[in-house]
Amino acid sequence: MSFSFQNKVVVVTGGSSGIGEALVRNFLAGGALVATCGRHQDKLDTLQTNIANERLYTQVADVSKEEDCRDFIENVAHKFGRIDVLINNAGMSMRALFDQLEDLSVMKRLMDINFWGCVYCTRYALPELKKSQGTVVGVSSIAGYRGLPGRAGYSASKFAMQGFLEVLRTENLHTGVHVMWVCPGFTASNIRNTALNKEGKAQAETPLKENKLMTADEVALRMMKGISRKKRTEIMTSQGKLTVFMNKWFPSLTDKLVYNFFAKEPGSPLK
Ligand SMILES: NC(=O)c1ccc[n+]([C@@H]2O[C@H](COP(=O)([O-])OP(=O)(O)OC[C@H]3O[C@@H](n4cnc5c(N)ncnc54)[C@H](OP(=O)(O)O)[C@@H]3O)[C@@H](O)[C@H]2O)c1
């Protein structure tokens, strides 16, 4: 399955790994010009070498820094002349109960990357997206609909992202800008390895069997389909859809079910 984005300019934040990398590859395969960023030059160099496509532009930019986002988006608009799609994908997670955190820096870092990164990039890309009648996407999570234990900063940042994007969608009802957020299920990537522990360090392991999870390619293709069809939201798994439904209609029961689910996760801090 592939979609035509012939000569569309697509910006994907955090394209050096996981879902972002799959988006970069699939949009290039669909004929787009693609720009991506990440914090590490070596990872972006590897991406450039592996993909070897002159329609790919990469730049070191930390989305938690407003100046980096402004510079990245301005450079993309200058290089490619327009922006049709912005995918706010760059993100990190955490694994620690709120009362275990040594301080609040983990919460602040996740808000800075997952929420503010989305706000900064959207702010600077919006004038271009209005001209192109383009699309803004937020890569959210079920954690943006339902608080998940051990992920206070992550859930808060994804709730905030969704709230921001809902406002943006409503404000742009008559400008032609399409706003969507997507919620992949557990997807094979590096996110659990880089998840911050109670000391604010990468946990450097995954409690899940990564080869049994959704693939990043599957997520990328679902997202491309959603953008083509101008969908509002895309919850990608039946487990995710069920969680959102249960949380809306049976919230107390869902507290217990969610607690029990995460208590069973290997290494869970819940009893
Ligand atoms: N994997 C899942 O199970 C899952 C499920 C639901 C939602 N999501 C969401 O999907 C998105 C992508 O995650 P992933 O699973 O693909 O994780 P990943 O494999 O760890 O990739 C994260 C990407 O974001 C970049 N990044 C991280 N912090 C950044 C920053 N401050 N500035 C710029 N780039 C940054 C990373 O590059 P550098 O480290 O070089 O900066 C990397 O390219 C995230 O928003 C995540 O919340 C993932």
Summarize the structure in words.
With 271 residues, the protein is α/β, with parallel strands linked by helices. It has a single domain, classed as Rossmann fold. Helices cover 47% and strands 13% of the residues. It is built from 9 helices and 7 strands. It has helices spanning 18-29, 41-51, 66-80, 105-132, 152-171, 191-194, 216-228, 238-249, 251-263, and strands at residues 9-13, 33-38, 56-60, 85-88, 135-139, 178-183, 233-235. Helix 1 (18-29) crosses helix 7. The structure holds NADP nicotinamide-adenine-dinucleotide phosphate.
Set out the fold topology:
Blueprint lengths: L8 E5 L4 H12 L3 E6 L2 H11 L4 E5 L5 H15 L4 E4 L16 H28 L2 E5 L12 H20 L6 E6 L7 H4 L21 H13 L4 E3 L2 H12 L1 H13 L8
Parallel strand pairs: 1-2, 1-4, 2-3, 4-5, 5-6, 6-7
The chain binds NADP nicotinamide-adenine-dinucleotide phosphate.
